[in-house]
Amino acid sequence: MFAYQSTRVGATTVDVAFTDRHGGVSGGPYASLDLGRHAAESGELDVNLGRLAEAFAGDPGTPLALMSQVHGRDVARVDGPGEPPVADGLVTGTAGLGLVVRVADCVPVLLADPDAGLVGAVHAGRPGLVAGVVPAAVERLRALGADRLVAWVGPHVCGSCYEVPAEMRDEVVAVVPESAATTSWGTPALDIGAGVVAQLRAADGVEVEVVDASRCTIEDDDLYSYRRQGPASGRLAGIVRVRP
């Protein structure tokens, strides 16, 4: 079920986790804990989310907030579950509400200030890296009163596998130089994870934890990857909450 799970205790307790592809009800190439569009269309999403909530918080009815991700930089504040906002970042100070980010090669980022009781979840692909969605989420949390933040960077495609045209690499590197990479076979590539980490470290007062740094979604069959599987790829999730 989980590629990583942890609890951080401050003035409040913050729970964080990143899923793998196991423990759900989806079948075929989407097997089995698909949390993406195919699961929604097949009616499996609610079941898989219930299993996620039970494993994460001990209750399948734990409220979860999702977003309709569009590779932008908008960050929405949510106070409960409901219609997913069109955004690539969520923030909340509502205890017990789990924030969910879904990916299949992009970088999932979870944020928390345990002392302030604030958390965030961010979807950072190549366009979001360039647009600055991660710094935007940090700024939104600080506007709500966050001070010392912790960021967990979850499993994503690595720079040795994420091949892109040279022109595309140059465009991204012009904005985030740390994202420059070369594939293991010598062609232009991007390391969006390294770019996200650089953006986080550029924001004063953010402690960065890179989760399972050696795991690449393309290389690891226990994780979903759009690059490896194509349109038949499911979606992984990062989830964070302030424990009630």
Automatic annotation (TrEMBL):
Catalytic reaction(s) noted: S-methyl-5'-thioadenosine + phosphate = 5-(methylsulfanyl)-alpha-D-ribose 1-phosphate + adenine; adenosine + phosphate = alpha-D-ribose 1-phosphate + adenine; adenosine + H2O + H(+) = inosine + NH4(+); inosine + phosphate = alpha-D-ribose 1-phosphate + hypoxanthine
Name of the protein this chain belongs to: Laccase domain-containing protein
PANTHER family registered for this protein in UniProt: PURINE NUCLEOSIDE PHOSPHORYLASE LACC1, UNCHARACTERIZED PROTEIN YFIH
Function: Purine nucleoside enzyme that catalyzes the phosphorolysis of adenosine and inosine nucleosides, yielding D-ribose 1-phosphate and the respective free bases, adenine and hypoxanthine. Also catalyzes the phosphorolysis of S-methyl-5'-thioadenosine into adenine and S-methyl-5-thio-alpha-D-ribose 1-phosphate. Also has adenosine deaminase activity.
Organism: Nocardioides iriomotensis
Coiled coil location: none
Hydrolase among keywords: yes
MF terms in GO: copper ion binding; hydrolase activity; S-methyl-5-thioadenosine phosphorylase activity
Cytoplasm recorded as keyword: no
Family: Belongs to the purine nucleoside phosphorylase YfiH/LACC1 family.
Entry keyword set: Copper, Hydrolase, Metal-binding, Transferase, Zinc
Organism ancestry: Bacteria, Bacillati, Actinomycetota, Actinomycetes, Propionibacteriales
